[in-house]
């Protein structure tokens, strides 16, 4: 596409750094683990970065916990997406040994580990697949996410 370019400064002007940071924290894998360092690179102070990223990464949790099961069940019934659905389930369940063993405490620990493929998205998928109760699962995931955010801020402060 000749002549088409993306000017990131224009995106920031339109949306504002705060909204860009919150939206980036909503992304799977990236979550607040990537969004907090990004916000700090923009010059945001640690508290503001943490709050924006925590809110942004927490937004998908209730939606995932409420709607993931029906979506996955639907995908299982389609020819086009059934393999993807099965792959996602298997991949998530392979990471669920701590959650299976310790239930909600394990879910909290899983979400608190600030590494790629641990966090709110995978934690929500695991909680859904293991049929953990919605509100306690949401509380465990969000509490673990707060710990992960504090760890990221702490590490960035001392590095």
Automatic annotation (TrEMBL):
It holds the Pfam family Sm_multidrug_ex. Keywords: Membrane, Transmembrane, Transmembrane helix. InterPro entries: Sm_multidrug_ex (IPR009577). The chain crosses the membrane at residues 49-68, 102-122, 134-156. PANTHER family: TRANSPORT PROTEIN-RELATED. This is Small multi-drug export protein. It comes from Mahella australiensis (strain DSM 15567 / CIP 107919 / 50-1 BON). The lineage of its organism: Bacteria, Bacillati, Bacillota, Clostridia, Thermoanaerobacterales.
């Amino acid at each position: 596409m000749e002549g088409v370019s993306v000017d990131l400064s224009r995106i920031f002007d339109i949306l504002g750094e705060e909204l860009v940071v919150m939206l980036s924290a909503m992304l799977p894998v990236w979550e607040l683990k990537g969004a907090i360092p990004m916000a700090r690179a923009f010059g945001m102070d640690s508290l503001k970065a943490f709050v924006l990223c925590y809110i942004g990464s927490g937004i998908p949790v209730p939606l995932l916990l409420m709607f993931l099961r029906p979506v996955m069940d639907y995908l299982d019934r389609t020819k086009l997406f059934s393999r993807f659905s099965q792959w996602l389930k298997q991949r998530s369940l392979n990471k669920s040994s701590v959650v299976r063993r310790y239930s909600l405490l394990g879910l909290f620990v899983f979400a608190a580990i600030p590494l790629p493929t641990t966090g709110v998205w995978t934690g929500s998928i695991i909680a859904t697949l293991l049929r953990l109760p919605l509100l306690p699962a949401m509380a465990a995931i969000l509490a673990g996410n707060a710990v992960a955010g504090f760890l990221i801020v702490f590490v960035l402060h001392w590095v």
